[in-house]
Amino acid sequence: MKIITLNMNMFRYLIDGSLNEFLKEYQADVVILQEVRSSLADEVTCYTHKISPNLYQEIENIKKTIYLTVALCKDDTWQKVNIDHFHYNNRFVKIKNDDWSIFGLHLPLQDDIDSLLSIIQESDCDIICGDFNAHRKYSQIKNWKVIDNLINDKGYSDLWEKGLKEGKAYYIDYKGEKKKAHQGDFYRTFVGNTHIDYVLAKADIHLIDIIIDMRTLAFTDHCAMIVNCKKDKS
Question: Considering all CA atoms of the chain, what is the largest pairwise distance in Å, rounded to the nearest integer?
Fold first, then answer.
């Protein structure tokens, strides 16, 4: 399973097809885009199966310029999971197929996110990924506390940290060269020189490799994270 997570907030318009070319290069099974305009997601031609947020299609008169978290899937085996007790929210999407479940999210820096945090913590997905707006040095804020809860109480692992420890973490530099990432070195995922994007996985998910691609800073303000993993067969 190959998954890409990327925040697209700063991507205002298509100039040269760079987003499509980037996605074609990796050929991921699932792409989770955060803060992407619905109209832009529709222009991604290399993925025809797009899954929008909880109850999005059921709401009339939503502007096409609204920012969403969407899932782009290689095939139509992936289906949206609507969370019945939670109203429409543009910040997360939950999908599954016969073998996998993924929760993609954009977690804002706001005080009134307790209901969204509880949905994340209770999602019980194989993979939880996206822009958490969280960093260890800001451990007092709610955003970091949800990561801490998922790792320490729910049994998830941070795949980037796991990759560093196991020698399976890499980064792509501005020349497009793949280089090994080393434990103890700092690797940002955001132009603000912080690491705020994460891929969290349950214990039965085995990491093959994980990559931070710095080239995406050419068209948005986040570095894409690309994870390749497999799951224990029951």
Answer: 49
- How many angstroms separate the Cα of 118 from the Cα of each of 26, 102, 140? 32, 16, 17
Mean of the pLDDT values across residues 151-162?
95
Structural Rg of the chain based on CA atoms: 17
**pLDDT, mean of residues 227-233:** 90
For residues 139 and 35, what is the distance between their CA atoms, to the nearest angstrom? 24
Tell me the pLDDT band of 139, cut-offs 50, 70 and 90: low
User: In whole angstroms, what separates CA 81 from the centre of its chain?
Assistant: 17
Q: Specify the residue for token string 């222009």.
A: 43
| Residue written as token pair 């009134």 | 112
Q: Which residues contact 185 (CB under 8 A, 6 or more apart)?
A: none
For range 41-63, the mean pLDDT: 73
Four-CA torsion 7, 13, 15, 20, nearest 10 degrees: 50
pTM equals 0.92
- Cα 41 from chain centroid? 15
